[in-house]
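task queued by scheduler; priority normal; single chain, no ligands, no partner chains; default sampling; output format set to structure tokens
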Amino acid sequence: MYRAEIVANQSVQEEIINLLEEHIPDILYTIIPLVTGRGKNSYKMGDGTWPETNFVLFSYIKDENVEIVRAIIQAVKKRFTDEGIKLFFVKAEE
């Protein structure tokens, strides 16, 4: 089992959730809807200077679904090339 951590621009949140639920119908997740910070290429601070914000989605993923999640995020990145979208996996114990 792995903990998937997705950090992305809020503009792609609905797209990511819809794809995850479509391809992994029993997926459970938690969303932190408003996240600010500095990424590799930009700031997302939710203010007048840096108005954009991110969200974070956490989900515990069965080993057999890891590649599905990876493929979903790669597809969203390819479709929305200008949005910051990051995926991290951490090995988790049940």
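post-processing summary
- The longest helix spans residues 66-79.
- The chain has one domain: 2-91.
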